[in-house]
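Human: Note token order:
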Amino acid sequence: MKTELDHLAELAGQGRISRRDFLGRTAALGVSAALATTLAGKAFAQTPAKGGILKAGLQGGESTNSLDPALNLSQVTFSFCKQWGEFLVRLKPDGGVENLIAEEIGASADAKTWTIKVRDGIEFHNGKTVAAEDVAATIERHADEKSKSGALGILKNIKGVKASGKEVIVTLGNADADFPYLMADYHLVIQPNGGKDNPNAGVSAGPYKVTVNQPGVRHGGERFANYWRGDKAGHADQIEIVVINDATARLAALQGGQVQLINRVEPKVVELVKRIPGVTIENVSGRGYYPFNMFCDTAPFDSNDLRMALKLAMDREELLEKILRGYGSVGNDFPINEAYPLFSADIEQRKFDPEKAAAAYKKSGHSGSIVLRTSDVAFPGAVDAAQLYQQSAAKAGIKIEIKREPGDGYWSEVWNKQPFSLSYWGGRATQDQMYSTGYVSTADWNDTRFKRPEFDKMLFTARAELDQAKRKAIYHDMAVLMRDEGGLIVPFFNQFIDAAATNKISGWVKNPNGEMMDGYALNECWLNA
């Protein structure tokens, strides 16, 4: 009950639930009327304060970053776009979908035609009113291969988009009951004319207007006076993201008061951070995972025997204990965990087996070292993880050569470019979206080059299947195929571990959809008066 009450209090503090609903839901939990009234008084006293400059020190920024949301790659662009950008919908902490620019989204009986009603009275930063034509153009641009959008994979099913009055009609090739979830993808910032004229302008309808854009250094914005949800977001006068890729420097900036929020606290220092006066660790489990990616179409990884040897040569339990310090769970070489509602728990867990790894390695015919690229920015503890893996692989007679890459340029020059490297994924709202973004053959972000027609066929079949039991069975078979033949090694699923100076700010809400409250921390938290 305590957890549910805390959740209700957080919703009340954010203005996401009325006082009447708060009292009704606490009564349903068996809370007395007197206690419920007291709790309501405290919860609704957490009224957001306006003013000041709210700053975050974030890892995941590079000098090559762009304001074009189609090119969002790492944490800084992910977080900054949610300050200046507005979306059709967003994911709620409970996994549902909240409408934003989309007032309503409805489907035809066969789930192939979707109608998006565009909300009235929302203004872009340039003074133009958001129209159905802007929404249609945004979807069109990201569905065009020329845009190189990270959302391209999930939009492949779209066959037509047209604006009609206040509505946008989207026609799909195959039925897809998950279509509204796709529209929450963080690349799909609604821009004037879809960003076709100038995608780098940083103009949308979010709570902040872009004032500073120094890629790899800092980004900032000032409150947009005409933001349509001004009572719920955009509390600070200004927000600023300082790019601090070094974990020690990031923590020092928080402790010294230069910033009020940081991401990616390393698990090994969590207990130390908890002792810092006024600082709170904000950790939450979700769908994120830290993979080792092998290109299935590039030697020597084009041999499934070699891929299997490398999977069996990983001691996942050791990595979970020493790298994540328990702030996560063991992975099984496919990108889905129990956070997904159609997860199959009956798939055998892969374990460290140096003898079988050695046999598979010998069968592959490969000899010599295997180059593994890593960097501090890949994920917290990525360099140490590579070294632990090097040690466990050696027990199977496999020589791993670690190449440590610089942080600046890692996401543009190493990830999805080099055949064996460490990475991170934040997960997606649904299994279909996760597979479509990174593992269907045509996905621009297919960072393991796993291209199997039978896998694609299963994905499309599952997408059109409205019977959830049948759909789950298909996802089971997809997971087994990827686990046994794919280029993905998943040692563990991580928790998002952020830290906040809660003596200076309020409004933090745990959100399993992504770090920094799924990117919304800077515009939904506020400085204490």
Observations:
- The first strand starts at residue 53 and ends at 58.
- The mean pLDDT is 94.
- The two ends are 31 Å apart (CA to CA).
- The chain is about 30% helix and 20% strand.
